[in-house]
Design brief:
Structural class: alpha/beta
CATH class of the largest domain: Alpha Beta
Shape: globular
Largest sheet: 8 strands, mixed
CATH superfamily of the largest domain: FAD/NAD(P)-binding domain
Radius of gyration: 22 Å
Number of domains: 3
Strand content: 15-25%
Number of helices: 13
Number of strands: 20
CATH architecture of the largest domain: 3-Layer(bba) Sandwich
Distance between the termini: 27 Å
Helix content: 25-40%
């Protein structure tokens, strides 16, 4: 049986980051990955001759973000695309009312201003909220403070509901009042014309990564751990588990002995959302020029309410739409043909029968993926931000958890995953590590 200083389970950003840093420090490290590729929930499809990011797409805020320096050091091209955090305005957005009429600029700004007004009240309500309140509770309370008619209130409520579906992959009543506290973007957002996987591939270069190794159990004690896969076992002084939260919640990996309550409790309380991405490549453009997004208000937008024009980043006539939370789970159960028909029906209500059939499409199903079982984490109703960090509490001086779900200030982000891997490496080595050491590409 092979013996290592550290075994890392999972070759996503958190996994390759911790392995990279430990390897640079002289440790003998191995990464075991269930998939036949590295990247985890970063997955770039190049089968059509251009890049389609089926997992992570954005750097959400480039200012002060450790990813910014990394992509620059690795020479990875990015493109500004600043509506990925579901802003109501700030970039050209085509907003359609419930009767499928385009809002004129004045009406669109009035609606965005309503959101900004309620947002200020919402922050005060959240600050004074009790632990048992959901985001739905505080949003309703903030809206109740406005003396507005039902229609006006409904438009803002829809925005909040859809924001939680996109940001958390969950229904507004299933997330905590404080769930979006960290939803603050500093600077522009950017996407990757050449694929997000360039980042993880650069970080993984030179590492010992064993693909197609599904970990079934981790047997640990204060003297070390044994990691059992379906085909072999590895022994190590330390083990870092970076699999997605959904896999941990499902009990797909057995821990012997069981994880202590200080780690198991957060795993149970934190939510794992579902967020479906649908890319449609069209033979030609039929929507407006010079817009970033199309948004549909009212009941017609329950499943498909936002379309992002990603044509510039891939060089094709391409729209990206999303469905999250309960609606996303329903979409995952549909066939590709049913999904595409549903999206086209929605677009035709706006643009008429002139909408052409797509020449290509991509539909993601992270909730059904056995090595993910969800898209990304969120502070579920009944959880707190502290649960994210609590999940990463070292166990027995041997066992460490990392990944986006373990980083409280930026969960559900690639930079959160990167920083969690950095923290795990520092804890194992017992000393600080300069994160900029990652910028030197390994051979």
């Amino acid at each position: 049986m092979d013996v290592f200083d550290t075994v890392v389970v999972g070759a996503g950003v958190a996994g390759v980051t911790v392995a990279n840093l430990l390897g640079r420090a002289g440790q003998r490290v191995i990464v075991v990955e269930a998939r036949d590729r590295v990247g985890g929930r970063i997955w770039t499809d190049r089968s059509a001759g251009f890049c389609v990011d089926l997992g992570a797409s954005w750097i959400h805020g480039v200012d002060g973000n450790p990813l910014t320096d990394l992509v620059e050091a690795f020479g990875i091209d990015t493109m500004e695309f600043t509506v990925g955090a579901f802003q109501p305005d700030g970039r050209p957005i085509a907003n359609y009312d419930p009767s499928f009429s385009l809002l004129d600029p004045v009406a669109a700004q009035r609606w965005a201003d309503d959101i900004h007004i309620v947002d200020e009240q919402l922050q005060r309500v959240i600050a004074s909220s009790s632990a048992d309140q959901s985001y739905a509770d505080v949003a309703a309370q903030a809206l109740a403070a406005r003396n507005w008619d039902t229609e006006r209130v409904q438009r803002v409520w829809e925005f909040y509901r859809r924001r939680t579906e996109e940001q958390c992959g969950a229904h507004i009543s299933d997330v905590a009042a404080h769930a979006l506290d960290e939803d603050v973007i500093f600077g522009d957002e950017v996407v990757f014309p050449g694929g997000y996987d360039q980042l993880v591939l650069a970080l993984a270069r030179g590492l010992d990564i064993r693909l197609n190794h599904v970990v079934k159990s981790v047997v640990w004690s204060e003297s070390g751990a044994r990691i059992d896969t379906e085909t072999t076992s590895f022994e190590a002084r330390n083990v870092v588990i970076t699999v997605p939260l959904g896999v941990l919640k499902a009990g797909a990996i057995e821990f012997v002995p069981e994880l202590p309550d200080e780690v198991a409790g957060p795993i149970e309380r934190i939510g794992m959302g579902v967020f479906v991405k649908v890319f449609l490549q069209f033979p030609q453009r039929f929507w407006q020029d010079d817009i970033y997004a199309i948004r549909q208000q009212g009941p017609a937008g329950d499943t498909w309410n936002s379309w992002y024009d990603v044509s510039a980043s891939c060089g094709q006539s391409m729209l990206l739409t999303f469905s999250g939370g309960p609606r996303g789970r329903e979409v995952e159960a549909m066939s590709d043909e049913q999904v595409i028909d549903s999206v086209l029906d929605s677009l035709k209500r706006i643009y008429g029968e002139s909408v052409p059939d797509p020449v290509n499409h991509w539909v993601t199903r992270w909730g059904a993926d056995p090595y993910s079982l969800g898209s990304y984490s969120h502070v579920a109703h009944g959880a707190t931000h502290d649960d994210h960090d609590g999940m990463a509490t070292p166990v027995g001086g041997v066992l460490h958890l990392a990944g986006e779900a373990t980083w409280s200030t930026d969960p559900a982000t690639v930079n959160g995953a990167l920083l969690s891997g950095h923290r795990a490496a520092e804890r194992i080595l017992g000393e600080p590590i300069d994160l900029t050491t990652l910028q030197a590409v390994r051979s």
